[in-house]
Structure formats: C-alpha cells, structure tokens
Design goal:
outer membrane lipoprotein receptor (LolB), chain A, eleven-stranded antiparallel β-sheet, alpha+beta
C-alpha cells in the first residue's frame, strides 16, 4: 500500500542512495561545511571527462555492489534510460526495488508488497535522468584528485537537498565510472562499485514499470 511520507524515513534514505548513485555528479549538500575547490587546468579536465561520460550515453545497465556503513553487502542490477527512466533492483535478501517510469519514482518492498511514490519532478532524479547534465550548474566541486589515470571528485549539491556529499572515482583509461562513495551528514559512508557496465543497450520498456498493490483508501 502507499504509505504516509512522514513515517518512511528509511525508504527516503534508500531513495537518497539512488539519487546519489545515479546522479554521478549531483551529490548531497554538506550545509556549508566544505569550501569549493579552486581547480587547476588538470583538475578541470578530469571533471569535464566525467561530465562528458554522463552526457555521452542515453542508456546504461550493469551490476552493482553496495556496502553499507555497517558493512552489510547488497548486490543487484540497474538500468537507466534517458530521459526519465531507471530501475535499481536489489538481489535477495534485500527486498527493495526502485523504479522511475518517467513521471513517478516508486520504492517497493517486495517482501511486504508495500510501496511509496514520489513525483519525479520533485526529486533530484529529474536532473539525473535529463538528457544533459551540467556538473558546474548542479554541484559544487569540493576536491579533485588525479593519479595513474584515476580521477576522484568530491561533490555537493548546490541546493543542499540531503545532508552529505558524494565522492566519484572515474577511470580515464577505460573511460568509465568505477565507484562512488556516499557520505551522509553524520559522516557514515556507503560505497557502491560498478561492474559489467554497458552503454547503448535497448532495455525492455517493461523494466520501467512496476505493479503496486493498493489496500484500502489511498493516503
């Protein structure tokens, strides 16, 4: 059933994970705790390489491994299709699946057959799933490190929607995003690693739809 937003903080955190993980360049804000970095030409080139990667595909799919702040490991598959559509499906025993159909973002607990929905237009996902993302417009760049072809960029959302920040790891040689670390407002880290990522594959449209069981009166 569709639950009341006030009592679904856990699912909101899960949604925050997906927003961060798919954003690639739109991180959660640290409420002014950090200062924006003054970038060198080399650092600017690294940031632009990530921006070009984000805007260089219209569809993306692959496997992910997530390590929670407590060390819990979850695996799953994801699909992304611009504009507006995505699917993050966790493997058992994690019961969650998160789908955007272009209008609504649905977070479903398959074990309990319950779900929450958020308008895509009212979440940062609308920016993530746009056909073009402007890193400099949407995020403050806090730090950029580069060594041996690996670029690490730390970002925060200009709008400060969610406490924390995002650290991206990009492989310049393979021209692919390898990993991101989500740091929440209390300093807790969630690490997500990507494998078997393929761009340009036409995903089944059914992946971006999800059935919701509604019981009783909708809130």
């Amino acid at each position: 059933m569709i639950g009341k937003p006030a009592v679904h903080k856990r699912r909101a955190r899960i949604l925050g994970f997906v927003l961060s993980s798919l954003a690639f360049a739109i991180a959660a804000g640290a409420a002014g705790a950090e200062k924006k970095a003054e970038l060198t030409p080399e650092q600017t080139a690294g940031v632009e390489a990530i921006g070009n990667y984000i805007n260089g595909f219209t569809s993306l799919q692959g496997d992910f491994t997530q390590v929670s702040p407590k060390g819990t490991v979850s695996k799953g598959v994801f699909y992304l299709k611009k504009p507006g559509k995505m699917r993050f499906e966790y493997s058992p025993p994690n019961p969650f699946i998160i789908v955007s159909d272009g209008t609504w973002v649905t977070i479903k607990n398959r074990a309990k057959d319950s779900a929450d929905q958020y308008p895509l237009s009212q979440t940062p996902l609308r920016l993530v799933l746009d056909e073009n993302v402007d890193i400099y417009k949407e995020a403050d760049i806090l730090d950029v490190q580069s060594a041996d072809g690996i670029v690490t960029v730390t970002l925060e959302d200009k709008k400060k929607n969610v406490p924390g920040h995002l650290v991206l790891t990009y492989d310049e040689n393979q021209k692919a995003l390898q990993q991101w670390i989500i740091v929440d407002g209390q300093g807790r880290q969630t690490t997500v690693s990507l494998e078997n990522v393929v761009a340009g594959v036409a995903a089944d449209p059914k992946l971006f739809t999800i059935k919701i069981t509604r019981r009783g009166k909708k809130d």
